[in-house]
Write a structure and sequence with these properties.
The complex is a heterodimer of chains A (153) and B (229).
Chain A (H helix, E strand, L loop, with lengths): L5 H28 L2 H9 L6 H24 L3 H24 L4 E2 L7 E2 L7 H20 L10
Antiparallel strand pairs in A: 1-2
Chain B lengths: L9 H29 L12 E2 L5 E4 L6 E7 L3 H19 L4 E7 L4 H15 L3 H10 L12 H10 L5 H8 L4 H13 L7 E4 L2 E2 L9 H10 L4
Parallel strand pairs in B: 3-4
Antiparallel strand pairs in B: 1-2, 2-4, 3-5, 5-6
Helix pairs in contact in B: 2-4, 3-4, 3-5, 5-6
Classes of the chains: A mainly alpha (153), B alpha+beta (229).
Chain lengths: 153, 229
């Protein structure tokens, strides 16, 4: 029964990708869901959106992350969920990159926290690399949404 | 739950799928609505007597004095504690001598204890002991954030040490009498883009991060430049 060809591995790779991308999004969302004021502040600190919209995003985003995470983990509507998750990650990369380029010194606020940090404490490269990895997982899931242990299909 | 190559009933799987999508959408929708609406200003909230809606619900001392000093702080914030140790007694003196209009905006985003402390400070303000209680909070600030130090019981006890012994103070702290006000302050801070504590505005303009926060001379210079006599 063991099939170690790429074709045999794919359902497992899909499962692992779902769990990683979903797990990260779930952790990120849950850590922020109970701290809306801090979450809004983290978005404002990027200084890229109008304040009212930044606040709305700060309040709403953690819930959206949880929603996408649940779909991925349960394996339902994986393709649209992965597209949404990947798009989110791409937007985060753009936001972090512009903060870096403009010389802002902020914490990404991805897992709670956020706002100003001391100059030597920025982790922009680490955050961008992590999010890039997650974009790649999302792309993989969009190509191969069907896998092991999914509630769907 | 394992993915099978053949399906027993396409309709059954569609039902599960749609049910899950529906439930997730419900959780997300309700969550977003509660989060967005819960963090807006509520005009009907009970606010302390010296709080001013026009000043973002801040606690106002010497309403007709100039210059105007707005102080945004979180009682759990360690930097705020340092700031208080540098300028606290000077500010209290300015207030006593009616030399400046000082408006306090206690933010509460570090955790539930910040919320309780801000509420208790409002209760203290209601009984004309804000300054003493404010000083005491920073003096007794825990070395770690969200340590559990500021339970309502402890806050009531702290109040007692500065003369807040009334039943009304105790009830105000325990019942969260000004929690709505605490939320209004936070909502106003979000609107005004206040992203760190302490943040100080003099006549509407933030003072210099590098030279005028943690240095009494720098702080005083900012006030003098703004018209302090």
């Amino acid at each position: 029964m063991s099939d170690f060809s790429i074709k045999g591995l794919q359902p497992w790779l899909t499962l692992i990708s779902r769990l990683i991308l979903g797990g990260v999004l779930l952790a990120a969302g849950l850590l922020k869901v109970t701290h809306p004021a801090k979450s809004a502040m983290a978005v404002r600190a990027y200084e890229v959106l109008p304040v009212t919209f930044a606040n709305f995003l700060g309040y709403a985003l953690p819930w959206i992350e949880v929603g996408i995470a649940l779909l991925l983990i349960l394996g339902v509507a994986v393709k649209p969920a992965a597209l949404s998750g990947g798009l989110l990650m791409f937007l985060f990369i753009v936001a972090i990159a512009q903060a870096w380029a403009r010389g802002l010194t902020i914490d990404c606020g991805c897992f709670g926290g956020g706002g100003q940090v001391a100059k030597g404490e920025t982790k922009y490269l680490e955050e961008i690399l992590r999010d890039t990895g997650l974009v790649l997982l999302a792309l993989y899931l969009m190509k191969f949404p069907r896998g092991k242990f999914s509630l769907d299909r | 739950m394992a993915a099978k190559p053949t399906k027993s009933s396409g309709q059954k799987d569609n039902f599960t799928r749609n049910l899950v999508i529906g439930m997730v959408a419900l959780v997300v929708g309700v969550g977003v609505i509660f989060s967005v609406t819960g963090n807006q200003t509520k005009v009907s909230s009970k606010i302390p007597t010296i709080a001013s809606e026009a000043e973002g619900y801040g606690l106002v001392f010497n309403p007709s004095a100039m210059p105007v000093i707005d102080i945004w702080e979180d009682f759990q914030c360690p930097v705020c504690r340092s700031f208080e140790s540098v300028v606290g007694s000077y500010l209290s003196q300015l207030v006593k001598e009616n030399k400046a209009k000082v408006i306090y905006h206690p933010l509460s985003f570090i955790g539930p204890e910040s919320v309780r402390a801000a509420n208790a400070a409002a209760c203290a303000a209601e009984e004309s002991k804000f300054d003493e209680f404010h000083t005491l909070l920073y003096k007794t600030q825990s070395t770690t954030e969200n340590s559990g130090l500021w339970s309502n019981d402890n806050l009531v006890g702290l109040g007692a040490t500065v003369g807040l012994t009334s039943d009304s103070f105790k009830k105000c702290v325990n019942d969260g009498g000004f929690l709505g006000w605490v939320n209004n302050i936070a909502a106003d801070g979000a609107k005004k883009n206040v992203n760190s504590t302490p943040t100080v505005f003099v006549n509407g303009k933030e003072i210099d991060r590098n030279t005028q926060y943690m240095d009494l001379n720098g702080f005083t210079a900012a006030l003098v430049a703004a018209g302090l006599k």
